[in-house]
Amino acid sequence: MSLVNTKEMFKKAYAGGYAVGAFNVNNMEIVQGITEAAAELKAPVILQASAGARKYATHTYLVKLVESAVIEHPDIPIVLHLDHGPSFEVCKDCIDGGFTSVMFDGSSKSYEENVEETRKVVEYAHKYNVTVEAELGKLAGIEDAVNVDADKAQFTDPGEVQDFVTRTGVDSLAIAIGTSHGAYKFKPGQNPQLRFDILKEVSDRLPGFPIVLHGASSVPQEFVRMVNEFGGKMPDAIGIPEEMLREAASMAVCKINVDSDLRLAMTGSVRKHMAEHPDHFDPRQYLGDARDAIKTLVEHKINTVLGCAGKA
Ligand SMILES: [Zn+2]
Predict the structure, then answer these.
(1) What is the pTM of this model?
(2) How remote is the CA of residue 105 from the centroid of ligand 1, in Å?
(3) Which domains does the chain have, with CATH numbers?
């Protein structure tokens, strides 16, 4: 199987009441950990690269790493997706350069500009069989180049979604219902809430249409403890409760983004390895542990949150 776009994947996910995990990739160990887990559980998977990832690893390395995963795991569908494309040009670069799906993030623009620029990306992408995700509403938090203060965050207005999807021709839509980017989504003692009423109203207005959740890491406390126990300092890192994500996946949400959890798993396991083996200096030893931790985390997500095991 070669790389695929999200069309069939989301159609099946919507009908089946599950979601596909979209995991951010930055290097070989991350790509391997994610795809080994997905292949063993026969799960479809989306590997996504942000503008920051393209800057860090370069476009060519990312594409070739993901293409290698496709060769290693021919039995599962794999999407290579651009996360938070900031402009038409960046989206075009990725479409021309082997990505099978792109997100154009016009959420910081006016509604009309968002419509106009999303439509332009869709027109170009569809010529090459590439699917497009757009965003309505504004998530709080920090992710690479995206940084929105909590007081500037905005829930998606369900009244806008039909007009937006019709006029842009977009294939999926990221909405803001209370998730946020980063590892500090809620304050200690705060009761995490997602606006399921908004999700429900959006899906009533867009029957059968795939919805995307960004900022959906659950921030597993075992990894937060591991980071803090072995010399790190991440006080009060809190994510979205897994039951809420599972609930969203059973509704119209077909894609759940996970980045912070991968970072935590990797950092926690590297810190632990370094602390327990002060004599080790072979990167394969601690990066091997990091890869194992990522694989375990992704298996857990597939089984517990996404529900997409056996759906490849
Ligand atoms: Zn995001």
Answers:
(1) 0.96
(2) 9
(3) 7-306 (3.20.20.70)
